[in-house]
Amino acid sequence: MVNYWIIPPYYSGKPAVFDRVWQYDRDHGTIAMGWERLGSEIKELARLDRKILRERITDYYPARHVITRGIDATEIKRLYQEIQIGDTILARRGCGEMLAEGRVTKTACYDQGKGEARAGAGNEVYPNFLKVEWTMNGKRFVKRNSFSQNTIVKKTEPDYRRILDSPTL
Predict the structure, then answer these.
(1) Could you say which of 111, 127, 138, 153 would form a disulfide bridge with 98 (CB–CB 3.0 to 4.6 Å)?
(2) CATH code (residue 130)
(3) Which pTM does this prediction carry?
(4) Number of domains making up the chain
(5) What is Dmax (Cα atoms) for the chain?
(6) What are 105-135's pLDDT values in tens digits?
(7) Sign for the pseudo-dihedral over CA of 107, 152, 93, 128
(8) Distance between CA 81 and CA 49 in Å, rounded?
(9) What SS3 state is found at 65?
(10) Which residues form the domain of 157?
């Protein structure tokens, strides 16, 4: 069964860095997520119970609000346990622009070096990668809040199709 995921390649509040990482992702067939401080241990952490993972995130991100740590735990588990080869990814910018649609060709892996190359010196590194074959160009939706602000959002096929069929600018 194919699952449908909506993921931003980077924080859209930094347009120059966003454009750089999105170009990298298109050129290299990737999309990446953050949680750099968790390091290469992230794949093992993703196997923990969600509540325990949330508490472990506190060790790495002590200033994060408890609700944000819970969201992080859910998204890390999705990245390393739920997203599978053949799933569909919709890359988004902000809450109203679809960049591209693609198919997952390799499950998640941690690569600090690629994350640094992707973001450039001095920028926040997103070192948790999925390999994606990008197939469809994006579009801007009339409804500016077409997407949630969460990093990894799972959609049902009907909800996903509704997004693709939404009015565009």
Answers:
(1) 138
(2) 3.10.590
(3) 0.90
(4) 1
(5) 44
(6) 999 999 999 999 999 999 999 999 999 999 8
(7) negative
(8) 12
(9) coil
(10) 4-164
